[in-house]
């Protein structure tokens, strides 16, 4: 399990479009997921301890961001051949167990992860209403264990700022997590 850190935010970079199957049986596009004031694209998976530590916080933040007009989508791009916990059927179970208030999509070809430049799970991409990148940072100070409950909510605060002003914070702390499990070519 390799820990990887996300690169610095490339402000204004457009959000790549996608058309991916969701655990709900629907095919979702970027525009289906977008909110009136922005879009949060998360690359997550089922097996990663960094993601497991914050799943409840991801759900909480997505619910609160929806009230601010920010849509959220989660994409799983790992190759499940070596990580069966990340298989589509298991994605359905996790989404149901945690009552995901957002689409949970499978990027089987891994093309969407590559288009976004995703490097780890979790990897967060926060976009403004015009789908320009404004945030590429961490959820909070959690690592493989959840940080204390009163920790600063970096992602939520940044996306709240994006919803209110259209701009993300100048200072962003990178997310850290398990590397994307790329299919061997």
Automatic annotation (TrEMBL):
- GO molecular function terms here? antioxidant activity; oxidoreductase activity
- Per the database record, which ranges form the Thioredoxin domain? 9-161
Q: Which InterPro entries match?
A: AhpC/TSA, PRX-like1, Thioredoxin-like_sf, Thioredoxin_domain
Tell me one Pfam family matched here.
Answer: AhpC-TSA
> So which domain of life are we looking at?
Bacteria
PANTHER family associated with the record: OS07G0260300 PROTEIN, THIOREDOXIN-DEPENDENT PEROXIREDOXIN
The identity of this protein, by name, is PPO candidate 1
Organism of this sequence? Imhoffiella purpurea
